[in-house]
Give the backbone structure.
Amino acid sequence: MRPRAIFLLCFAVAAMTLPKFFNALYAIFVTPGLYSAVWLISNALVLISCYGLWQMRRWGVYLFLVGWGLKLAGILWFPVTQGRSQWLFWFPLIVMLVYLAVVAHYWQDMDGKARETD
């Protein structure tokens, strides 16, 4: 049985990433470029990582870190300009920290290893 926290984390991350994925897919055709490609790839990796986390696999966590790291690198690569909020940088960082905090609690349960309870 999947823990409720993992279910909520998968749902929240997928709900945040799915619209961004479709927006990135649109952007790759409208304004093709390196940033659009990186944005599309990072969102695709995060969506695939949701499936891995749903299946309680460690590769899902690793894939999330790669995809989310690409997002953060893209934000740092194209710095916040006039009129854009600093929240654009801090929100993904906070999401990643919450993700890691939840996953750390269930790390022993990943890959089918059950916890030993006496």
